[in-house]
Amino acid sequence: MALSPSPAPGAAPAFGRLAAEIHACDTCPRLVEWREARAADPPRRFRGERYWGRPVSGFGDPGAAIAVVGLAPAAHGANRTGRMFTGDRSGDWLYAALHRAGLANRPESTRREDGLRLRGAFVTAIVRCAPPANRPTPVERDNCLPYLARELALLERCQTIVALGAFAWDGALRALRRLGCEAPRPRPRFGHGAETNVGAWTLLGCYHPSQQNTFTGRLTESMLDAVFARARELSG
């Protein structure tokens, strides 16, 4: 099945401009302090590496039919590498699944210059800076939501949003509301495999590929693969 063979006209430059704006954001003092402190004092295994230490923009195909939305950059994952879900165990699971689904050219994501390319998929997050204890505040979430809404608006061929976890599910619904879409009533509840239509998009729920979920077996490779198989089916 072919997915989004080429970007929408003018999409790539628009994404570049938005990415530059995201990278320069310093709206949330708590997040700025946290992300920079983690970059200045990394764990021993990353000593000597140059950390990104800035907000992280979305990554992938500007002509994507599928958007994958996470919570926020990991302190020593995307906050270190500068690319969403890159350099941590969650990313290992996510990009391996995208590769199995035919949406990535390789199963690993280690650094920005590793040659990874996505086709038909775009990976992003609700919050763009690494938050303490992976818990952004509602204000920090709301400060970042316009970035997600603008990414979704630029993804003109996007039909399906895969929300990795309840926070991403809720944030995606809020971002779609900013684009003029009203969620169904009663408000759809998150669950693995949950599915709801919101405007022109279908929102799919998936447990986050965090170690808390993958080590315990709450999320398995087959469960993750089933979500992306369904996303491809919806976006075909």
Overview in brief:
With 236 residues, the chain is of the alpha/beta class. It contains eight helices and six strands.
Could you list the spans in which at least 5 consecutive residues all have pLDDT below 50?
A: 1-9
Structural class per helix/strand content?
Answer: alpha/beta
Mean pLDDT: 94
Name the strands of the widest sheet in spatial order. Answer: 1-3-2-4-6-5
CATH architectural arrangement: 3-Layer(aba) Sandwich
The topology string of helices and strands comes to HHEEHHEHEHEEHH
- Tell me the major beta sheet: 6 strands, mixed
The gyration radius over C-alpha positions equals 16 Å
Residue share in β-strands: 5-15%
Number of strands: 6
Please count the helical segments: 8
Q: Please give the alpha-carbon distance between the first and last residues.
A: 7 Å
Anisotropy-based shape = globular
CATH class: Alpha Beta
Helix content: 25-40%
- Within CATH, the superfamily carries the name Uracil-DNA glycosylase-like domain
Domains counted in the coordinates: how many? Answer: 1
Overall description:
- With 236 residues, the chain is an alpha/beta fold.
- It has a single domain (11-235), classed as Uracil-DNA glycosylase-like domain (Uracil-DNA Glycosylase, subunit E), CATH 3.40.470.10.
- The protein contains eight helices and six strands; from the N terminus they run H-H-E-E-H-H-E-H-E-H-E-E-H-H.
- Strands 1-3-2-4-6-5 form a six-stranded mixed sheet, sandwiched between helices.
- A hairpin with a 2-residue loop joins strand 5 and strand 6.
- Helix 1 (11-23) packs antiparallel against helix 5 (138-154), helix 4 (89-100) crosses helix 8 (221-235) and helix 5 packs across helix 6.
- It starts with 10 loop residues before the first helix and ends with a helix.
